[in-house]
Amino acid sequence: MVLHLLKQDQEVVKRFADDIRTAREDIQECSTCFNLSDDEVCSICADSRRDGQVICVVEGIRDILAIEETHQYRGLYHVLGGVISPIDGIGPENLHIQELLERLDRDEVKEVIMAISPTIEGETTIYYLSKLLQSTGVRISTIARGVSFGGELEYADEVTLGRSILARVPYSVSED
Amino acid sequence: MVLHLLKQDQEVVKRFADDIRTAREDIQECSTCFNLSDDEVCSICADSRRDGQVICVVEGIRDILAIEETHQYRGLYHVLGGVISPIDGIGPENLHIQELLERLDRDEVKEVIMAISPTIEGETTIYYLSKLLQSTGVRISTIARGVSFGGELEYADEVTLGRSILARVPYSVSED
What we know:
The structure is a homodimer.
Chain A: H1 2-7, H2 10-26, E1 28-29, E2 36-37, H3 43-46, E3 51-58, H4 61-70, E4 75-79, H5 97-106, E5 111-114, H6 120-133, E6 139-142, H7 158-166, E7 169-170
Parallel strand pairs in A: 3-4, 3-5, 5-6
Antiparallel strand pairs in A: 1-2
């Protein structure tokens, strides 16, 4: 990258450097959901067409990008900033949990979707959060876990396959 | 393998060849579930400790091996011998569907689990079978589909992530 920059016109490089500095200065965390944002409130939180009654709780900003790419979700988000992991010294107090409780208190939220990785730390975090939210009466759900769509059954890992059988779901033929 | 065999004692190779022939001659399809079997009825169908009220429908024998390895399933199986795939010339009449209907007619079966790969052909087969079974009143379920257990959310493919959000499941904190 350095060699490439040295080959460019001085003026171009100066402008590029300015852009980087401005970007770093301007980009902040959304005060509501902790997504990256140009303004105090991010473009998702500010979008009135989105469903404010549903909050999707994610570990990080990358998860928002991944979920947005699917075009299947029209609610809001809340970035925890990680998962509970005692081995890494991350406790509930290091995550944006208090802020989530405040949002539930303040806004009319009907459902919280835990879109958290189904790892041990992730499951612990889901459990902890759900216990906390239990008294609020909000509906709590997790994203579906199981064999990947489009995947071949025999190549699924043993844990996923085993749990997918235990967590099997009723199938109903849709009307036609 | 040939070079290895040539290095062995003649008597060893003869015995090995006999074993292969016997194996091929002795192994047959289970007359009930079409699993591989030494006898007319396979060891799973013959095992009285297994739950005969649940039948897990799979594409092939490999799926039985994969599911058995998880140690999470205690019911019986039914091998279809493939999935419906017009492009490969495989229609319902090429699969062991009639035999499944006969089993449901004959035995007291309460649930049929569709443990079929969530591919397009697999979904088509699940739909076709479920329509057929609808009138029998048997409970129909599919294995859970979604983000792999232990997997990181951001690495899930777009289709799986999108559908996992749509097919999200209620989460309840277990009593403790």
